[in-house]
């Protein structure tokens, strides 16, 4: 017997309809009722229809998560620029000033929340 791979159909509301081979039914999926299938206007062609609820996740910007942290007050902080190397010629006043973390202005807060949606 030839096994047919699962085909995926996307429907409204973040629901994925998957047509699976009845012999390969997973324990994590459940068959759809007739009203659910008719609501999506999809006809079954010999296989069993299953419904899988999906959650849309936003991705955190990888460069942002390496450079910024959210402190307890809800402010984003970062390290100052020019701290890594070539610091022998930097004056001591400037070197001391860059030791403290840099706190971003409130104007950047909405933009940073889009880049780091799960920072709490």
From TrEMBL:
- What is a GO molecular function of this protein? structural constituent of ribosome
Q: Which domain of life is it from?
A: Eukaryota
Which GO terms of type biological process are on file? translation
For this UniProt record, the keywords arranged alphabetically read as follows: Ribonucleoprotein, Ribosomal protein
**Which InterPro entries does the annotation name?**
Ribosomal_bL35, Ribosomal_bL35-like, Ribosomal_bL35_sf
What's one Pfam family the UniProt record gives for this protein?
Answer: Ribosomal_L35p
GO terms for CC? large ribosomal subunit
Q: Which HAMAP family match?
A: Ribosomal_bL35
| Record family assignment | Belongs to the bacterial ribosomal protein bL35 family.
Name the UniProt record assigns to this protein: 50S ribosomal protein L35
